């Protein structure tokens, strides 16, 4: 049996390492703790996002350009589809009591964001404007300078067997639609 203890890091690609370092260290206040110069002239930098978890970025002068709507989200929450194999977004865990302060920090830094806490629930729309006992996670969405969709997420309740209520879709499901 393979036993993991969590996520060590997620590796993303940035368009400008200096801009990325400034955003993650100054706006999100995630310390930069390791830098690597790659043999091909690229870079690989690591940021501490809390509890022993990391976010890492690669930079190459000749990296392919961003492809919003294909490899990254166009605009969350209503235009969030991305291509198979892409990373849709990265969610950082946060205490619920910290969400309003996070909104203020993003506003203060001039970072485009959802401007309100997004309450995820099991309603047909998947969200509620108001907090209620069916809300299972509360989120703030924003993008970094590379167009990577980020989320501050606060889980609001424990999950149980009733939370697994849907059959997984298959490629055949798409063909039947």
UniProtKB/TrEMBL annotation:
Taxonomy, superkingdom: Bacteria
Domain VOC: 6-155
InterPro entries per record: Glyas_Fos-R_dOase_dom, GlyoxalaseI/FosfomycinResist, VOC_core
Entry-linked Pfam families: Glyoxalase
PANTHER family: GLYOXALASE FAMILY PROTEIN, METALLOTHIOL TRANSFERASE FOSB
Protein known as: VOC family protein
Native source organism of the sequence: Erythrobacter ani
């Amino acid at each position: 049996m393979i036993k993991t203890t969590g996520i060590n890091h997620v590796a993303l690609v940035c368009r400008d390492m200096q801009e990325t370092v400034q955003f993650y260290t100054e706006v999100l206040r995630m310390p930069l703790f390791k830098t690597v110069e790659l043999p091909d002239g690229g870079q690989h930098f690591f940021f501490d996002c809390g509890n022993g978890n990391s976010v890492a970025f690669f930079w190459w002068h000749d990296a392919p350009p961003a492809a919003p709507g294909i490899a990254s989200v166009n605009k969350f929450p209503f235009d969030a589809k991305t291509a198979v194999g892409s990373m849709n977004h990265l969610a950082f865990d946060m205490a619920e009591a910290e969400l309003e302060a996070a909104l203020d920090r993003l506003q203060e830094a001039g970072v485009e964001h959802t401007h309100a806490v997004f309450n995820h629930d099991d309603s047909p729309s998947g969200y509620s404007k108001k907090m209620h006992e069916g809300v299972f996670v509360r989120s703030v969405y924003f993008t970094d300078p590379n167009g990577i969709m980020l989320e501050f997420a606060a889980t609001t309740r424990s999950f149980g067997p009733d939370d697994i209520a849907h059959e997984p879709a298959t490629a055949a499901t798409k063909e039947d639609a």
